[in-house]
From TrEMBL:
Lineage of the organism: Bacteria, Bacillati, Actinomycetota, Actinomycetes, Mycobacteriales
Superkingdom: Bacteria
Every Glycosyl transferase family domain range: 190-325
Residues of the Glycosyltransferase subfamily 4-like N-terminal domain: 23-180
Pfam family, one: Glycos_transf_1
Keywords: Glycosyltransferase, Transferase
Protein name, as recorded: Glycosyl transferase family 1
Source organism per UniProt: Mycolicibacterium litorale
Nucleotide-binding among keywords: no
GO MF term list: glycosyltransferase activity
Length: 363
């Protein structure tokens, strides 16, 4: 008889967890909750209002602050900072009230400091997945005197190394995706770029590399900043470059699977790079800047890497990667990006933290 674990997932208080996803973190939490439920476990998610799911697990919208007219006039702190802090404060107080009878473990995926700072108020273990480098607010919570009442994992070896000076060695559980949902496609004659349309994702570099290599480029993703889109993206559209919009997962799978090659062009040290895994699962080889955790996912059979910021080298990588056989690309996803392997490792970690025999935990 498999032991069912009651998991409280702390997700984003700023962006709803629903399709089409605002970013990789929201996509990850959505898919992870589905996988836990499918494995027979109970999930309650604390997430931004408007979160929508299609399985019988609970979503508890975080509390929304109705600010007074006087406080809205205060210029010292942006409104979104106050709303997010209030939301996580309400989550942690809610958990402290209902934990003993409702949950076995709290799994924290937020990027806010409050869940970590208030972990000592909980009566069950907390596990925090580190999805980012040591951001200032997050690091200061981890560095509290006496330590934080949370265990940690990191999404890549690179991210674990970044956090090691702050809180010592961190176990790695690499992100995974549902390989039954992401199916291999036939390929095609264009390049594809997907992700949030924000400066750190480096879309202009992808456009320049695709044009240099003589490839059409199709773009998909949410506009994280409309002003950035108007200034840095729209002027480059046309002449073989098209924006396909913000797509649902099945639509994105079709677009990526129909491409000859996927471009991944971060201008920051990408902690993992979910779009890389999605491309490999679609059978589409990747040409990417060698930043952050991306080199841990791509091998010589599934893509090519270029030095960060080197557009000419990226265009050469694109031309080579576009001709790689698609079978080994999908095989790389199956061996290194499997959601089932990721979930099994998390369940082992949960079992260790709550004192359940690992062999009794469903994977």
């Amino acid at each position: 008889m498999t032991a069912a674990i009651r998991v409280a997932l702390i997700a984003s208080a700023r962006y709803p967890v629903r399709q089409p996803f605002a970013g990789g973190l929201e996509a990850f939490v959505y898919q992870f909750a589905h996988a836990l439920t499918a494995a027979g476990h109970s999930v309650t998610m604390f997430a931004a209002p408007g979160s929508a799911v299609d399985l019988p697990w609970d979503v508890v919208p975080v509390h929304t602050l109705e600010m007074s007219e006087a406080s809205r006039q205060d210029p010292s702190v942006p409104d979104w900072v106050v709303h997010e802090t209030h939301a996580y404060l309400s989550v942690m107080l809610n958990l402290a009230d209902r934990l003993r009878d409702s949950f076995d473990i709290v799994h924290n995926h937020s990027l806010h400091y409050l869940p970590l700072a208030m972990a000592r108020t909980l009566t069950v273990p907390m596990l925090t997945t580190l999805h980012t480098p040591p951001l200032k607010w997050l690091e200061q919570a981890v560095a509290l005197p006496g330590g934080v009442a949370s265990a940690f994992t990191a999404v890549s070896a690179f991210t674990a190394r970044q956090w090691e000076p702050v809180n010592g060695p961190v176990p790695v559980i690499a992100n995974g995706i549902d390989l039954d949902e992401w199916r291999p496609g036939p390929g095609g004659d264009y390049a594809v770029w997907s992700g949030r349309l924000v400066p750190e994702k480096g879309l202009p570099d992808a456009i320049a590399a695709a044009r240099m290599a003589g490839f059409r480029l199709r773009i998909a993703g949410p506009m994280g900043d409309p002003a950035y889109f108007e200034q840095a993206v729209r002027p480059h559209l046309g002449d073989g470059v098209t924006y396909e919009g913000h797509l649902r997962r099945d639509e994105l799978n079709e677009l990526v699977g129909g491409a000859a090659v996927a471009l991944v062009t971060p201008r920051w040290e990408e902690p993992y790079g979910l779009v890389t895994a999605e491309a490999l699962a679609s059978g589409t080889p990747v040409a990417a800047f060698a930043r952050g955790g991306i080199p841990e996912t791509i091998d010589a059979a599934s893509g090519r890497l270029a030095p960060p910021g080197d557009i000419e080298a990226l265009s050469r990588a694109l031309r080579v990667a576009a001709h790689l056989p698609r079978g080994p690309v999908r095989a790389r996803a199956e061996s290194h990006c499997s959601q089932s392997v990721m979930v099994a490792r998390y369940l082992e970690h949960f079992a260790d933290l709550i004192g359940v025999e690992p062999e009794r935990v469903s994977a």
